[in-house]
Design goal:
alpha/beta, nine-stranded mixed β-sheet, globular
Length: about 525
Amino acid sequence: MASYDEIVLKNIEYMNTLDGFNIVIVCCSSQLQADYWQGRLTKAKGSIIPLDSVVVAVEEDWPGGAGNALGTLYAYVKASKIVKEQFGVDVDAEIKAGKVSVGLFHTAGKGTRLAPLPGAENNNKPGVKLPANISIDGKQVPITILEAVIKQTGCYAKSRKGRLSVFWGDQIFIPTVPVEYKVSHHVDILCSLGPLPTEEVWKEKGLDKYGLIARNSSGDAAQVEKVDHATAVQLLANLGAIEAVGASLGSFSVSSLILFALLDEFSNELSTKTGKLDSDPHLWMPMTLDKPAYLHLMQQKGVSNEISSAHYDRIAATLVKFNSLPESKSLGLFGPVDVGQGVCWWDFGQLKLYQNNNLLLVDGSKDAELLKLFYGISGDSVRNSTVTNTSLDGTSLVSSSIIGSASQSEGKVVKSVVSNVRTTYIEAEGAILVNVTAAKIIAKPGSIVYNVAYTGPELIVEAGQVLAGVFSDDESLLVIKSNISIDGGKAWEKRVEGNPYSFEEVYNNNAKADPTILEVVSRTVHDKIWNTINSV
């Protein structure tokens, strides 16, 4: 039997082969963002996804939001129509025939807890850059969070021909069990399974704070949300003897058969763009729990028994109709896909986690080596860069940068991540710098500088300070300040650190921003300032 380390390394190696989904769908919150991802991911073929993949990005133009259940169905229908019109591929026919794997990535959300970085990408939250590069149009550019997620999750495509897989765009995880598996259920969901813990261990692990998947001895599963040990056991009694339980990752896949059953059931909502349903409480829980258990859980969410009962009955009727199909007997209804225990999990959805998981690259740990291997940056700590008169410690990473000058005193980079930075002098310790241009940079421990083109003589960033540059069409730059101690979700409406705008006001001001144009604007301004610095 292969060891834990061997399996993890093999999984990363496989992810780097880019054996991903045949069709990649990105669900965006605006058409401008959809246009951006259509262009970006098409150019990223061969770097993130297979060269022959079909990419289609769509806007979820649904008043008030569809929720991830209806949003998934709506995005699939909308994308399938575009693929047929533009590429001549009948996605419905291909997925029914088991010929293609389809990966759908949800990117909606304001990214409040990652603020101010999404503002620097003009509200394009999944476009926040990471300090590793990929090739786009023959140039080395920083990989985005979404691109890293698409690359990582592609490892499930081979096992999922004839299925739609659904993921969220801000977490990378490396399973500790083999990623290839034999499909056994019409719906399966990623989770980290282990033996059913005692009540004491349940509390210690904080399992009452997660959506949980429980599996019985037959391999079938059920889902509950945020309950204590006693309640979970009570609610799951209908499942039988529980063999394993674990936190759900939320990501799931569905067979073509149940996909089209759901499309049929919710056809009215999809055609009128009405309603808001999420997959966990509105699909998987009523599918897998008995009615009293479901009503109990929904009541805890503040939903009346009348509403929950009607919805449960609707899903039950859908399942009766589905189970009458002869083909439905080929698989079980709902089951887990185990990612193993001790999963390497790199979350970039919060500012503090963005800092932790990027500085992880320079801490010398085993996880650091695994993350670098995933990014393809193992080996040299300096890549595609010119380093002059600057001392580097043994752990810092410098990529696609020009730092230092023979005419300046010696700079230094210590335990820092430097990506796409141009400066004649740098002092950085425990810092993250991504897309920064300045004559001189002093970045103190815990600081983050993101997309800043600075015209002054010296950019000084205090310990824990966060700077994010927001460009406008006229090439003006607004630098929004924060601190690593500030939770953008809690401070969303406040003007912190002396900023002229709150994070929310920056978001609203970006409402009509075109990330495709503004990415060019940003690059142009950085180039102009660097040329000015070099001409002095």
